[in-house]
Description:
By secondary structure, the protein is of the alpha+beta class. It is built from 10 helices and 20 strands. The longest helix is centred in the N-terminal third of the chain and has 24 residues, at 2-25. The radius of gyration is 34 Å and the shape is flat. The N and C termini lie far apart (120 Å). The mean pLDDT is 82. Keywords: Hydrolase, Membrane, Periplasm, Protease, Repeat, Serine protease, Signal, Transmembrane, Transmembrane helix.
Amino acid sequence: MRQLWTIFSQAVTVCLGILFVMKLFYPNLLVQTNSQQVIVKPSIADNQAAAIAKTGYRSAVSKATPSVVNIFTTAHISQDPHRALKNDPLFRHFFGEEMEEEDDQPENSLGSGVIVSADGLILTNNHVISSADQIEVALSDGSKSSATVVGTDPETDVAVLKIDRKNLPAITFSNSEQMKVGDVVLAIGNPFGVGQTVTQGIISALGRNHLGINTFENFIQTDASINPGNSGGALIDTNGNLIGINSAIYSRNGGSMGIGFAIPVSIAQQVMEQITSSGSVTRGWIGIEAQDITPELAESFNLKNINGSLIAGVLLDSPADRAGLRPGDILTAINKKPVTDSQSMLNIIALLKPREKATLSILRTGKKVDIELVVGKRPLPNKIPK
């Protein structure tokens, strides 16, 4: 028995020695696993992120920048406060025809624009060219051309220009309705006249309104740096497609503070198509003055929520007046489209076609009423009755 125990002890000792040697010189032979090796494949998004990290947004920028132009305007401003008086025939009768005229002083400004057709149509902001006597467009290749105004829409701050050139690099349009908060965007323009510049950011918000910038507001908000001179330039996605026209910034000192606003390309395209086909923009109008429903107004009208728009006034002999709408009515829907506030009401009415019928759903003294009216044509901004 003792001899067997001795042989066993020696065998164990020899095995432990062999294991020690294998562990020391061949460690991989002793590794065991009960599972198969897992190979992690990077997702398509990871591959795209890796590609972007390597090349940035150069492909999007190289695609879009040839379509972005610099706009230089000149307006001749008279320095003579008595110029109008001097042109009066009675004044000239007493003081003579030969009067010294002070020269007009040219006032220059700059902005940006986007080529939207190969034959020279350019989208920009109305405020960029609204007071201009002369407009010059500088293309990305350094060439310059005089531009004429095809038409403007001050209520959305959109203008369409035309230059006499062919085979221009027109930008491609994206579907701005598919953009989401957080999407990466690039702003291209001519800030402070330093030359074409690209800045990067994200979409901070969609559908911004009640800003007091335009009559019709549905802005894309972005933190991409937008500065004076960027107005009218392009806001593009990472594929180089146009999603908006840079329009305004929130600023306390004239520089970018990370809050910029762009007109969605869907709105700019609608305006452009009407301008190029008829020379102006036609919108629906019913002739009411409206205001948002505040919590205090909701309480006084015994309303359960603050959705809708309070009709504060009805213009005499307007479509609303002829249909029987009254001050104090609360407009809740137009052709079954919900009205959430006065801005949404204005946008819905603007899309109605003049001379067509529309059904307005209102609350009057707590009761739901449907009123049918014939839509009118919205007057020009300076001719809207007060």
